[in-house]
Amino acid sequence: xxxxxxxxxxxxxxxxxxxxxxxxxxxxxxxxxxxxxxxxxxxxxxxxxxxxxxxxxxxxxxxxxxxxxxxxxxxxxxxxxxxxxxxxxxxxxxxxxxxxxxxxxxxxxxxxxxxxxxxxxxxxxxxxxxxxxxxxxxxxxxxxxxxxxxxxxxxxxxxxxxxxxxxxxxxxxxxxxxxxxxxxxxxxxxxxxxxxxxxxxxxxxxxxxxxxxxxxxxxxxxxxxxxxxxxxxxxxxxxxxxxxxxxxxxxxxxxxxxx
Length: 259
Hints:
It contains 7 helices and 7 strands. By secondary structure, the protein is α+β, with helices and mostly antiparallel strands.
């Protein structure tokens, strides 16, 4: 492989290591977190940038902005997609999705670079401080991508009219437990004591309701919930409401249960 593709080869190698560590180490492993961080913030965007502009002789700042902006966009859109699949927002599903996108775009980048002439070494020296029209357009596009990612990620924040925040989660218990057993929890991280109402639906049908959950600041409520058995992948939704706004969904999480 020619030397001009060494960046793509490094991207492929780091991606493979990061995906492997996701399945090989525990979720709280420091090594695993360090290695998987580039898979979230840098590698997918960099691979996509190189695939789109195989001849791009960008400066370091351009590469960083493009990689971060594209990666954030991929992660946000990927999160929306995974949330509506049976795989859910898990470390393994994130790893497979981002790893597949990165490796796939790396292959496209390698193919597009094949046969192209090597950029003259004289052009790889110090760049002029004056931006060309193309560089200005590319930087502007990268800035728009970053802004779009921030706006999309802020949609959920805009739905919260209260100070602080509330955590809501529903997770499979795993291990030797049946597949229809889940762990459901709420944590009050608001600035005052809160009262909630919690409803759980399976395939659109209400199966459990807690009409009043009172939590002090930093207090947690958690329960193990046995859900109805189904013969297909079931969509479980947990809907959390403030008791002073009983018709407005405050938090919403989804869990797909396999058969």
